[in-house]
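Moderator note: this is an archived Q&A kept for reference. The question asked for a predicted structure of one protein chain; the sequence and the answer are reproduced below.
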Amino acid sequence: MKRNFLHLVLTMEPRLLKDVGYPPELVAQRLDTPFWKF
């Protein structure tokens, strides 16, 4: 499940993330956070 989420985040384009309401700063912060902390 988490691997699928990671794949989804890494393959989504920034403009798509912005369309669904994820600011680039938040995306970068999530990528910097180990996924087991979710």
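Archived answer notes: The two ends are 12 Å apart (CA to CA).
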